[in-house]
From TrEMBL, chains A, B:
The keyword Transmembrane does not apply. Keywords: 4Fe-4S, Iron, Iron-sulfur, Lyase, Metal-binding, S-adenosyl-L-methionine, Thiamine biosynthesis, Zinc. Pathway: Cofactor biosynthesis; thiamine diphosphate biosynthesis. Its cofactor is [4Fe-4S] cluster. This is Phosphomethylpyrimidine synthase. It comes from Desulfurispira natronophila. One of its GO terms (biological process) is thiamine biosynthetic process. It comes from the Bacteria. Substrate binds at N68, M97, Y126, H161, S181, R182, G183, D222, S223, L224, R225, E261, Y288.
């Protein structure tokens, strides 16, 4: 029995998951079904992820955001990761990737899946490498075993580095920052040392069988994404993208859902080209990009750098943005970094969704504007992407005696005499009386 | 004797200020002269601002950023404002506007001009209103007196609200957030109550004489800029913009330099239209926009919302971005907010300048990428827009024993085993040996 949403869509079935997606996107259920059938939308919903609220990712749905969490050998554990998960869901991450590479990978992942109502993604390669002595001892069998184990646990989508081939490695050798994908660099080294083709590429059909069995969505990783502006849109990146397009078609032949991962670091003037090229080479499969970062000189603020690139990418048709936190290029994010990264990317995705005029998406903005003009501070806080921070900033900038007074018809920016909204109300009143 | 840069440019003179601008922009001095002569570039340099380093703002120069500082009736004084000025210059503001509306306006402004190597802008209306009992007692004479006094002090550019006319007021009456410009709302109320035309519009020729005398650049304010997405690109906004285009021509006839101010709150899909429209109606005079903010629901993070809109606006040809701080819509920013606002807008302007391929502008990015790939942490910090924060984030996320070690070939994100750059080096070494 084939359980994938894609298979069922192709059989003409509107599944409960498709109905849920249709409701939340304000789309017709039949339209959702047809988008899933042709691969332009994925519903990342492993049959073993029991408490999941299904969610659609694709060109004709609102752009989503993903938050990466996970520990490393140097930092964090299960408690901290569940705290990050809570933070991520609370501030509006649409999916969460557990990228743990440290201790207790299996335990942490199970805890995360059990706690999460949003889809969980992983990069199985990390666990595979963690469980062997030397990354060079990796084998196709080992990777497939880990993938099957994670699929059984209920992972909804998985990044696999099967698009980087031996022929690509020389293309990356004169890059400014080489290969910056963790899984991609490990895979490249393995191919170089063994003088063999990419084992996940070689075992791709077996991989598809596992994905089909649990309805795991494949997220085809871009091992050769640029790690800096200087390497953007180069031959290495685009050659791998063409292979991802081929692998996408092979997955669709087996009714396996697919997303395509994308860069990375891209100057503003190359973002539209990158999105259009992906659509062309990968048959409009959902594009899932990391950032992209539009400058290299802002460590400590790369959530902003990435939000600029992400907003543009989403405007041009990217389906999901992977967030970047302020710690990018510097260290592993903590819970507060997760919060800052999520809000920055919520802003990026939401502002693009407004510009793409998805139904109902600007309503919250209009409500906020009305609350501003009526000095309804409590409503402004409740409509804010981060109510706690909005309240805190308002309070800390008011003079002592007004600190807890949320009824004033001004803030400390202009004070009562210069508040343009107050004056506007007076003008409107006078105009009505005239 | 006519002292303005525009007059001298039109006489064929390449002034020392133009030479300085040419050097910093990597442009030909004669090209700078011709841009100033035709009004497409301004050099905001009051003859009485003695320690100024001249700087060019225009379509064919790198996009600049402005930081607003200034106290309000509810908060801050001279000491705090000088602290904000230092912060602004340190983190790279190209100009600073003193928007004080509280106590000691004159003293604060003089202190700021004396301390500042970057151009200082003001909104003279604030002082004019502050010095009278009731804003409705304002007169053309009073405003001109304040403008002349500030010009004598050395203010390099001034926002004047002379484009909002009586005919425009009804257009703003059914807006969601009314008139959100402080000066604009005061002017509208004055016109409505007195049933007279805008006094600065009426006294425009006298205003131009003062500007000519000290070479004050006019920054024609957009009193009717939208205060929310719902009001963007409406009739009120565009009708005023057409008047600003007329006033621009009249200023150029007297060799007075002009910038045009712009929104505000604009959805991503309307930004290009707004920039092109301004160029058309205002004869390519430098466009100086506030943000623009691309969503209304992110109070506490509007520096990010504005950086997204600003990057796009700059990419389409805006000449200067006025920053927005995290406190926007909530209160008066403090020094830390100024820092966050500046860095966000440096990112926006710089990433647009890269995309517009101004000479040499990407060099720092490429140096940063090389420093990353060679694990030269100290160089990474020194090339960062905010060196202190980059260092702090790196340190706080490393384990205790490595906290002060900036020689490691990894960070806490991936740890030593999974560092893709490390693996890339190994791959490159092997490739070379093969």
């Amino acid at each position: 029995m084939n359980v994938t949403q894609m298979y069922r869509a192709r059989q003409g079935e509107i599944t409960p998951a498709m109905e849920t997606v249709a409701r939340s996107e304000q789309l017709e259920p039949e339209f959702v079904r047809s988008e899933v059938a042709r691969g332009r939308m994925v519903i990342t919903a492993n049959i073993n992820h029991k408490n999941l609220i299904p969610m659609g990712i694709g060109l004709n749905a609102r752009c989503k955001i993903n938050a990466n969490i996970g520990n490393s050998k140097l930092s964090s554990g299960c408690k901290e990761e569940l705290e990050k998960l809570d933070m991520a869901i609370r501030y509006g991450a649409d999916t969460v990737m557990d990228l743990s590479t440290g201790e207790d990978i299996n335990t942490i992942r199970q805890a995360i899946i059990d706690h999460s109502t949003v889809p969980i993604g992983t990069v199985p390669m990390y666990q595979a490498v963690e469980e062997i002595e030397d990354p060079l001892d990796l084998s196709g069998r080992k990777i497939l075993d880990v993938i099957e184990q994670q699929a059984r646990q209920g992972v909804d989508y998985m990044t696999v580095h099967c698009g980087i081939l031996r022929q690509h490695i020389p293309m990356a050798m004169d890059r400014t920052t080489g290969i910056v994908s963790r899984g991609g660099s490990l895979m490249a080294q393995w191919m170089q040392r063994h003088e063999k083709e990419n084992p996940i590429y070689e075992h791709y059909d077996e991989l598809l069988e596992i994905c089909q069995k649990y309805d795991v969505t494949l997220s085809l990783g871009d091992s050769l994404r640029p790690g800096c502006l200087a390497d953007a849109s180069d031959k290495a990146q685009l050659s791998e993208l063409a292979i991802l397009g081929e692998l996408c078609k092979r997955a669709w032949e087996k009714d396996v859902q697919v997303m395509i991962e994308g860069p990375g670091h891209v100057p503003i003037d190359q973002i539209e080209y990158n999105v259009k090229k992906q659509m062309e080479l990968c048959h409009e499969a959902p594009f899932y990009v990391l950032g992209p970062l539009v400058t290299d000189i802002a460590p400590g603020y790369d959530h902003i750098t990435g939000a600029i690139g992400g907003a543009l990418a989403a405007y041009y048709g990217v389906s999901m943005l992977c967030y970047v936190t302020p710690k990018e290029h510097l260290g592993l994010p903590n819970a507060e970094d997760v919060r800052n990264g999520i809000i920055a990317f919520k802003i990026a995705a939401h502002s693009a969704n407004i510009a793409r005029r998805f139904p109902g998406v600007r309503d919250r903005d209009d409500e906020m504007s009305k609350a501003r003009f009526s000095f309804d501070w409590e409503k402004q806080f409740s409509l804010a992407l981060d109510p706690e921070r909005a309240r805190q900033y308002r309070m800390e900038s008011m003079p002592e005696e007004l600190r807890n007074d949320c009824t004033t018809h001004h803030c400390s920016m202009c004070g009562p005499k210069f508040c343009s909204m107050n004056i506007s109300h007076q003008i409107m009143d006078t105009a009505q009386n005239q």
